[in-house]
């Protein structure tokens, strides 16, 4: 069994290269990646350089590509998911680099989601003292796995440079395809958002409206619960509108009563124009290892 494993490793090394060789070319990969994506932030931490290890022993790497970063800053809500088990030192280092790369000068306006694993809570408290930190990542993680359909697991089995390239190329394609799809959108709202609005609009037909002021309404839903809806503040006491950024059934009932535009009641994050801004910043193609210096 041991002999078979050794033979397998030798064959794998002869085809893909060894683990040590992969880490040895990591500095060249980082240099090439940075040159092809000007404005990106890339930090390779490999201390303890010696005669044996020209660049030191690999410890960690931080990559923030300019395209995805600018797209995130131009249209996404400032919600960041943190996952994996790392030491407090690693998480602190990562969060400092992330804060500087994204220009987070007011952490209070950012929200971090995590499963509160080792080191995360302490690092967020240390580096993002006033940031909102929420403690459950299951649904975000499930959506991420569905998006990439298990490909992240495949990437983890690769050598370090292969893994980084595989993830980068998947994001590069995803950004371009979504940019292309944004041009075909006919509605001012995204399709999934429009489906939610349509469903809530049907439910809103049973809501009774009592106007209290120019922008304030008392509403009575089918559940016989009364709420106060304030159109000018995009708020309702049911909290659905406040939390999701999309009008609740009470707000849509008021909208039908006032003959307003549903787009005006939706957070800008769900508009076609915002979607186009997010995916208008590309990750640039990279030359193969033959051209690295």
UniProtKB/TrEMBL annotation:
Keywords, in A-Z order: Metal-binding, Zinc, Zinc-finger
Domain of life of the source: Eukaryota
The keyword rRNA-binding appears for this protein: no
Pfam family, one: SWIM
Gene Ontology MF terms: zinc ion binding
PROSITE patterns according to UniProt: ZF_SWIM
Domain SWIM-type: 227-259
Protein name: Uncharacterized protein LOC104585602
Organism expressing this protein natively: Nelumbo nucifera (Sacred lotus)
């Amino acid at each position: 069994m041991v002999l078979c494993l050794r033979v397998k490793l030798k064959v794998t090394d002869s085809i893909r290269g060894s683990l040590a060789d992969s880490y040895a070319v990591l500095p060249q990969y980082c240099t090439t990646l940075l040159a092809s994506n000007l404005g990106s932030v890339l930090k390779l931490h490999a201390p303890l350089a010696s005669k044996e290890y020209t660049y030191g022993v690999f410890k960690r790497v931080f990559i923030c590509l300019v395209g995805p970063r600018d797209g995130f800053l131009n249209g996404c809500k400032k919600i960041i998911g943190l996952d994996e088990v790392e030491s407090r030192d690693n998480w602190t280092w990562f969060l400092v680099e992330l804060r500087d790369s994204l220009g987070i000068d007011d952490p209070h306006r950012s929200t971090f989601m995590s499963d509160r694993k080792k080191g995360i809570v302490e690092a967020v408290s240390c580096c993002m003292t006033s940031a909102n930190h929420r403690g459950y990542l299951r649904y975000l993680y499930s959506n991420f796995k569905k998006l990439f359909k298990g490909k992240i697991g495949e990437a983890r089995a690769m050598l370090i440079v292969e893994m980084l390239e595989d993830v980068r190329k998947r994001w590069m394609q995803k950004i371009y395809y979504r940019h292309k799809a944004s041009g075909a959108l006919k509605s001012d709202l995204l399709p999934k958002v429009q489906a939610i609005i349509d469903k809530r609009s049907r439910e809103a037909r049973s809501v009774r409206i009592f106007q209290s002021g120019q922008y304030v309404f008392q509403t009575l839903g089918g559940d016989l619960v009364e709420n106060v809806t304030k159109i000018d503040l995009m708020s309702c006491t049911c909290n659905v509108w406040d939390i999701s950024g999309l009008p609740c059934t009470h707000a849509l009932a008021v909208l039908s009563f006032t003959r307003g535009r549903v787009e005006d009641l939706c957070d800008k994050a769900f508009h076609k124009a915002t979607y186009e801004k997010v995916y208008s910043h590309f990750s640039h193609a990279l030359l193969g290892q033959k051209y690295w210096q």
